[in-house]
Structures are given as structure tokens and as C-alpha cells.
């Protein structure tokens, strides 16, 4: 799996988890959803992605085109 796809999968899972937590635990979990969205937005413009840095250290490689979220 490429780093870019791993980041998209991780973000999707975290958003789904935050929606479930919002529904069953507390509405304050929407803050996590907003944080994930803002992080994805800033990553699109800056190329800085903390999740990408962690995943790279775990051994997930670069995308097929040589570009990745964390440079």
C-alpha cells in the first residue's frame, strides 16, 4: 500500500470513529472530525502531514508517482 492511500484510509477510519463517538458518547467528538479535516486541508497546500511521517517510520513507502504527503 502506498503512503498516500494509507493516509486516506487512516483519515477515513478516524472520521468514521469520530462520527460514531459523537453519536453515542458526546457531541464534543465533532472536534476530532474538524481537526482531521483541517489537517487534510493544510496538508494539501503545505505537504506537511504528521500521520505521513509516522507511517513512513512504520515502513509504509512512497506513492507510485514518487510524491507523498510527507516530504
From TrEMBL:
Name recorded for this polypeptide: DUF2892 domain-containing protein
Stored InterPro entries: YgaP-like_TM (IPR021309)
KW tRNA processing (keyword) present: no
Pfam families found in the cross-reference section: YgaP-like_TM (PF11127)
Key word Ribonucleoprotein present: no
Gene3D superfamilies, sorted: 6.10.140.1340
Organism of origin: Cognatiluteimonas weifangensis
Keywords for this protein: Membrane, Transmembrane, Transmembrane helix
Transmembrane regions listed in the UniProt entry: 7-25, 31-54
Domain of life, source organism: Bacteria
Domain spans labelled Inner membrane protein YgaP-like transmembrane: 2-56
Lineage: Bacteria, Pseudomonadati, Pseudomonadota, Gammaproteobacteria, Lysobacterales
Amino acid at each position: 500500500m502506498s503512503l498516500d492511500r494509507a493516509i486516506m484510509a487512516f483519515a477515513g477510519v478516524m472520521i468514521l470513529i469520530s462520527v460514531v463517538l459523537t453519536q453515542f458518547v458526546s457531541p464534543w467528538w465533532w472536534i476530532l472530525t474538524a481537526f482531521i479535516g483541517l489537517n487534510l486541508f493544510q496538508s494539501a497546500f503545505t505537504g506537511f502531514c504528521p500521520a505521513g511521517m509516522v507511517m513512513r517510520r512504520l515502513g509504509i513507502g512512497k506513492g507510485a508517482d514518487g510524491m507523498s504527503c510527507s516530504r
